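Hi V.,

You were right to ask for the full record rather than a summary. Here it is.
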Amino acid sequence: MNIAFIPIDNRPVCYSLPEQICAIDEGIKLFMPEREWLGDLTKYADTDRIFEWLKNLPAVDAVILALDTVAYGGLISSRRCDNTFEQIKKKIEQLKDILGEKQAQIYAFSSIMRIANNNVNEEEKVYWDKWGKKIFNYSYCLDKDGVVPYNDIPPDILDDYLNTRKRNFEINKIYLNWGNFFNTLVFSKDDCAEYGFNVKEARELEKLGGFVKTGADEIPLTLLARSIKGKLKVAPIFLEPEYKNLISNYEDISIEQSVKGQLELSGCRVCEPDEADILLYVNNFKEHQGEIVMEFPSEPFGGFWEKPDKPYMIADVRYANGADNSFVEKLFETDFVDDNFYGYCAWNTSANSLGSLICAAKVKYFAKNYNDMAFKKLQVIRFLDDWAYQANVRQKLQLPDENLIKQKMKPFEDRIFEKFGTKYDVSYKFPWNRLFEVEVCI
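Predicted structure:
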């Protein structure tokens, strides 16, 4: 199967993770634009090069497409770029012409512009460091109460923000008007609250027939899974079943709804354990989801873990942005790495973990030419990133330091290598020069 994949940006989970997942099946040939052409924290994607790359692609069966990359230069760029509606409209019409000649199934997603509830402008426009929380509150109250709330946001800043939102919303409506051009078109809600302009826009898109999904970074992987032929039957098993109705951080639906939504969009069927091809264990949270880096506690896993006798995978979502140390310790007490093991994931939001986990499991299950070493490599990277770094080493670093992280990661490397029966030469990078994401290089 030949698949073209245009990521959101050049982060490891957006660019390297799809490569690592597709390597599990040597029957998949993955085509991606050069990493340096994609956007990052401060740079926009080179859409001219990406369009030229698309034109020259050999025949592919599917195109997995982050529309924000080609329209605005990336997910972060979609909130920042100053291009007019007409300029972006011209660009996406050019994209449609190129894709129309490919005779491929198009699986695409476009974001509904988020509203961050903070005064941090790292991923927003410059004025967010002073007015972010007030813009969030303005949006929240106006959607909730239907009346314009009092605010002291400077008119030029508020107008700029509202015009950027309107531009992006109108572009999303154009995609809807393309009708059956897409095999699948998803509009993503990223970092949601109960009310706000983004929630209102989601409702309006749904009324127009659009499909809206909570999440963002994992959606290209969820669509990749959807493009893989075969209906996988998956049974979710919540380790805290009485709490599966609780809502994860950065999401607006229950963890149970998030799990079912990811499975269905991935082309899987939710079923009971006795008829499942794969069991999906969800290490969900009690009371509220924790977050280690924010020092937001949650009760760790305190139950008993026993390896099942049929295929299974594990979504460790007790904490956002990292693994549950207690659960991993229980897991490592067992010989969990066997033919029935289909993956572990615990990065960032619940949706992020679920989408990428399910994608890798589906690729492995339906692999035409399975590569076990590639699967083990993927899992080693996930444990090094999600558990060793995010849940442990990250808290011991003040600044990105590639030498210090190597020293701190060594004890975890040894334990993980022993479990997987592997030995790798590993180095670490901070591609966006911040602690939020690390790149594990094997």
